[in-house]
Amino acid sequence: MTMLEHLDDPNPPSANAATRQLVLRRASRIRRQRTLTAGLCLVALLAGAVGGLAVGRGQSATVLTTTQSAYQFNRESTPLADGVAVPTAALVDVTFVDLQHGFGIALHRSKLVLASTSNGGASWKAVGPKFPTGFLQGAGFAGQMEFSSAQHGYLWGGNLLSAKGDSPLWVTDNGGRTWQPTALGPLVYDVSAIGGNVWAISGTCRSDTTVSNCAVSVDISTDGGTVWQSVSEPAPLKSPATMAPYELARITLQQAYVLAPSDGSSPFVLVFSTDGGATWATRPVPCATPFSLGAELAASSTDDLWLICGGQATSGDQLKELFRSDDGGQTWMLASSTTGSLGSASDSTAPLPASGYVAPFSIGHKTLAVLSPTTAWLFPSRGDLLTTTDGGYDWHAVPGLQSAGLNDGGAGNVTFISATQGWVCAYGIGLWHTDDGIHWSALGQ
Amino acid sequence: MVTVTADFDEAFPGLYTLAYRVAYKILGDRGESEDIAQETLARALVRWRRLADQPHGWVSRVASNLAIDRYRRRRHLSDQAASLSVVDPLLAERMDLADALRALPRRQREVVVLRYLCDWSERDVAAALGCTTGTVKRHASRGLEAMRLRLGPLLQGDDDARAS
Predict the structure, then answer these.
(1) Model confidence over A256-265: pLDDT tens digits?
(2) Which terminus has fewer CB within 10 Å in chain B: N or C?
(3) For chain B, how long is the longest CA-to-CA vector?
(4) Of A22, A241, A363, which has the smallest distance from its Cβ to B81's Cβ?
(5) Does B13 contact chain A (CB < 8 Å)?
(6) How many Cα atoms sit within 13 Å of A416 on the Cβ side?
(7) Is the CB of A61 inside 8 Å of chain B's CB atoms?
(8) Does A14 lie at the interface with B, CB-CB under 8 angstroms?
(9) What's the average model confidence in pLDDT over A51-64?
(10) What is the three-state SS of A307-354?
């Protein structure tokens, strides 16, 4: 045995025709990006020369607009000044409080910045100097945010951890210009606000502790996040050794579901309360091997639940299964799943395409938006924006967005504020909006 | 469109295997290693006219750089995804290896990757990098010494084999 041979793959893949095709496609993309970059540099040089002649020496106007590329945005010096235009291509996560007002997390030189819009996403501006220390990103993924109004919002790490091993929750009352830490934590897994009524799932141990049974609680604030109180009867939640895919899905002020890790026969457990957290009941979770690495829950009504289970992933593909329940999780039915092996081109005809990552590889980003018992949108990382109108049995990519190269982008998300008003963003690609739930148009371009 | 020349097609299987092997040794993940091998070969194809004569050194360096970058990003992620994935019993060794490689100068890393990760002979490494076997020996010796400080037992007992 030679040195380091034990680290080799015992069955390495061979380079076949399909692999060659993938490489050629990537090479073409690199070539296009280079051509585009060279063109932009040329345009910038010409514009600079013309501008220099026109305004003379010493003038340096900010030329960035919402239509600029992420590449040009990254040339802007750090830290970004308040009010600087943020291109839609730099957004990695967006959320909207109404048709006009929204917030986005943007990536600037590997730092996260908050951006806001007051015209429905057509243009964005940087807000405040920077996010609070400890709000992290990892591998292109940001933590999470939620806003209940144009001024009031929440920011938490999701399942990304700071160097101290914590993941706190911050609250803003001025549209993100400043953030105040809450007393919850040190781990805050998920947050959901309905007006000033906010629920959070938090853990009492840091992630680096070895205690296996740290308390995990559901905490409620009725004043927008200032005063918190744990629910009277603790939800039957276990604390894992590391940050875990806890997910809070609130239907009404009183009713909520929590998807949590489990050490039982199933890797997950679903608990729910119909009385504002006073009592809790447990429901089964159908995710099973090989679809049991991660799970994401979404609901359109009290009883209509959608559960997507994620398995192993490779080269942009992931095994997935979608389950539906119309009785609040008492019984589940398989609606669709990926077929074939990962990376096989034939999988594009499967009811649920394999391309794109969902939990746990979407790292805290919610990928599933359910609008009704029949209609939902799924935007897995590195995949196409998919939609279903038959309750999740068949999914198909949105053609216009497919040609825009959405699946070539980085992190992104899909979000809806009503059955027809939605937005989807992908880093490096841009932001789109629909006002009829069918057609999508690019914003800021 | 990218023009694919016959010599790229001819070299493709060997270079792909090389890039995959380097990435897998560092990451231990089949999917990620395939991803890196594809990315490396795509980049190589774009600049193939300049690489065609001696592509192996460049491919090994880019593959190891990409793998180390991926490894560094992993560290910033929560442990969640890793802990839920298939457990790799050699994870600690791979982490040490990535750290050790990252600390090497560019040329030393090229030599070490081809010589010890890909198990090439000194003559083959010299031919691939366009230098003498003496240069390869020198870089290999210095690189190995630097890595030994970090890897320790992982490299013990291989001196004789390497000296051939």
Answers:
(1) 999 988 876 7
(2) C
(3) 50
(4) A363
(5) yes
(6) 24
(7) no
(8) yes
(9) 40
(10) EEEEEEEECCEEEEEEEEECCCCCCCEEEEECCCCCCCHHHHHCCCCC
